[in-house]
Amino acid sequence: MSKQDLHSVAVLGSGESGMGAVRLAVKQGLSVFLSDGSAIAEAKKDELTKLGVAFEEGGHSLDKIVAYKEVVKSPGIPNSAAIIKEIKAASVPVISEIEFASRYTGAKLIGITGSNGKTTTTLLTTHILKSAGLNAASAGNVGNSLSDLLASGAAHDIIVLELSSFQLDDIDTFKPDVAVLLNITPDHLDRYNYQMAEYAAAKYRLFENMGESDLIILNQDDSWVVKGAQSSPARIQPVSVQGRVLGHGAFSEADCLILDTEKEIEVIPTGYLPLIGKHNHYNQMAAILAALEVGVSFPEIINALGSFKNAAHRLENAGVVNDITFINDSKATNVDAVFYALDAIEAPIVWIAGGVNKGNDYSQIKALVQQKVHTLICMGKDNAHLKDEFSGDVSVLTETLSAAEAVKAAFEHAQEGDVVLLSPACASFDLFKNYEDRGDQFKAAVKELKDVQPKMKQI
Known about the structure:
17 helices, 20 strands, UDP-N-acetylmuramoyl-L-alanine:D-glutamate ligase, Rossmann fold, ligase, alpha/beta, six-stranded mixed beta sheet, Protein-Tyrosine Phosphatase, Chain A, nine-stranded mixed beta sheet, globular
């Protein structure tokens, strides 16, 4: 359905994407109705009233929703939900907010997805573009919706989109000019019938509308990723940390990244890179290739790398106390992310892990734990899965019920030169509001520890 034919839209959900879609729809002169199965915050209800938008809360009225020509649904609502099935049965199209918003911009789009590293790569790509003087912005799963960005009225030449599988589930004509697929590892499988193939298919949707003039940047070392681009007519530039790539692309070799584009070959010593770890080599190579594709020069990229600061809770240095470094990797909510964290750290490790187990298979990190971790601090209400898996692999295993307790216990068992790594491998909802709250409480506990250490030494 073209935007010229669309005169009304119903929006499901009053979260970031839903409210953004409402604002953009109003800006475009569409008749809008918002329906939320839960309560709507008072401030949002006030805004909807001021915008002249009808709404309902605490449930969905099918007759009201299907009176509109199209439905934009929150990424948090699965297609298995009864209301979605009923809307589709009434032959009313259901699309994602990304699909809806993309109709109202002429900007060049860089779309980035993957199980891990999406936010880091999105922020780095955007930072490089802005540092080079390009009129660029980021949106999507990174925090602000694309709809909200467009509704704000600010015009951008390039928009970098972080895209989750949930956002890609319901696209139709959406097409990025540059697509990045970083990796596909088990995550959110409850949404995809516990089938990796279904989850991967959602990620592959990023490519489905791309043409010969577009560019796909993908992880050559991930067989799931490679499979997804095999039928695309778009140009492909792979990235790899395991060896040279086929054709143009980027790879790591010794202490350098080698970038081989259609125009030039460049080398970046890893010492110039702002992010540690092999997993971040993938992220940084992808961001650099995307920037080169849209016209950023290599010297501009080198300059931008030197000033980049990653988002919080991703291998974030939380402080050093008595020569013990505390690293906040609270965003690592699956085993694959923990693998990257453990692999990136050279020093002996006191590992803080735990939370809500998502059916984790710890086999892929078993060897790294045996090699690098001497103490495991479990931080969760139910730590049986961690104790069963690692009690024979570490010298010390102890349980805690708060970030403050975990930091205190880690400090007691750490030696000078060690790293205390919070990399939970689990969801945070047993003890914390979310992973940000978990990371913030960890950082606060480290700061408190650092503040009291001089006093303790004087005793």
